[in-house]
Amino acid sequence: MENKDDKKKAVYKNPRSLADIQRSIFSNTGLQKKDYKGRTIEDEEEWQIKGGVAKYPKVHQSKLDRKKSSEQRDLALIPTPPKLGVSQVKNIDTLGYMLQRENWKREKAGKTKTAEFEFDFKDYAKMRGRTETELARGGKFLDELKKDLFTGAYTTYRLDRVEIDGKLYTAHGLPNIYILLEPDNHKGNWKVIYNEPYKNYYINGKQYYPVLLQAIQDKNTDDRKGYLYFFFKIVMSYASTKPGFARQLKVITLLDKITISDGTKARPREAFKVLCECIYYTADNYKAIKEVRFFNNWKCEKVKIINDLEKFKKWDYNDFTKEVLTPLGLTDFRDALISFNAPPTEATEGTEETGQTGQDIITL
Predict the structure, then answer these.
(1) Pair (205, 238) in one structural domain
(2) Do 202 and 275 share a domain, yes or no?
(3) pTM, entire model
(4) Helix H segments across the chain?
């Protein structure tokens, strides 16, 4: 029988402000060759990211090109980029969970919270979903995990605008997320020391939402399927804001938040397929969704309720149009509003948190 205390401990309290910054910086696929901007006068490699740039110091490029000689690195026209995809989000979440675990121990011993901790790399790899058998066998994945750690330590960001807790800010000089201390000769523990403002998010932050360790460890969402992890985190974020996920989002806004490509967003059928995959993945694996609601507008005058979530496993866009969009008076699902689990509780036209009673309700 599963121990309730163990289940409770397998939940990471994700600081909401940190999660907002993650969505502002990272994407599903990470950086591509086209994102490279060149080398700065400060001898940093500069990469284009959403709403700003990321800089990685050339002196630490060997940490990303672990198998290349210094001569090969110097000859490369475009250097290996820092890992700014979903694997970096999971790296930050994993380290945050490990810090949380350290602070549980400290609080139990009557000590104050800390923003630094030591860890065994093998333990970190297990937190990222690797088994004892895989660790004994070794492989390229070990280098990739280390690249995640080095990326978080050495990459700095300059963002034009960042959304935190639903408000837009101009961000100046966001530093490296943490200082990483690597043991000599690959023996002994590693150490992480958080920089500001991230340190403050963990020590003094008041707003958190739960992220299951099980989701962090799902290797199937580490790369091309990263949007599944982003979607799961959004569901958990909104579910903790109001009971039963009472908040509505415009579908196109949700697609933006899970960072799928502009090409996919531009094609309704493909975007719908991705959304269906996200909903079914989150409902089937984590039981975090019990029903889905689509609304026609911000007044929520018409609503379609889907209780049979198996539909999202194989729903065809033409059938969805007939069963949901047409009754709502819509032709493009990206124009609909979407909510999960609970009915609307409050009407506020023109915002993303809305609802209204006395609706035209149809249940599927």
Answers:
(1) no
(2) no
(3) 0.87
(4) 4-9, 16-25, 70-75, 86-108, 121-127, 132-137, 140-154, 198-203, 213-216, 226-241, 251-257, 262-265, 268-286, 311-314, 317-320, 326-328
